[in-house]
């Protein structure tokens, strides 16, 4: 089995190397099928983490249009279990994506936000995006609150 393929699958799904190798073997090297299997397993694990206590996280800001005259500003409060996870690239990327989603789609509350189609990939919603990140980082994650301002 190609090591690069195993490592790529591990990176994209958050699965361990041995799990990625095993599923690639089971799917006879079919990368997309292996990815689906691992993501499904990760989402199932994510569901089991939903009752874990949130003790850390980030407040993330996003200004649409940047410093040269942004007309929409968003602040999101995203929680996780530990400071360690709050500092990871996967978590900060999620915070950024959630803030951009709020900017673009103007949901009325967190519940509505979670049900919205993800602006970058309409095959999933924001709740699924969060569960994918939970599967990668191994901790519970919640969007606790957000605020959106527009001129």
Descriptive notes:
This protein is of the alpha+beta class and 151 residues long. It folds into 2 domains: 3-48, Helicase, Ruva Protein, domain 3, CATH 1.10.8.10; 56-150, 2-Layer Sandwich (Tetrahydropterin Synthase, Chain A), CATH 3.30.479. It has helices at 3-13, 17-26, 31-48, 83-86, 89-105, 110-115, 126-137, and strands at residues 56-64, 72-80, 117-118, 121-125, 141-150. It has a 3-stranded antiparallel sheet with strand order 1-2-5. The protein has a two-stranded antiparallel sheet with strand order 3-4. The longest helix is centred in the N-terminal third of the chain and has 18 residues, at 31-48.
Write the layout of secondary structure elements.
Layout: H1 3-13, H2 17-26, H3 31-48, E1 56-64, E2 72-80, H4 83-86, H5 89-105, H6 110-115, E3 117-118, E4 121-125, H7 126-137, E5 141-150
Antiparallel strand pairs: 1-2, 2-5, 3-4
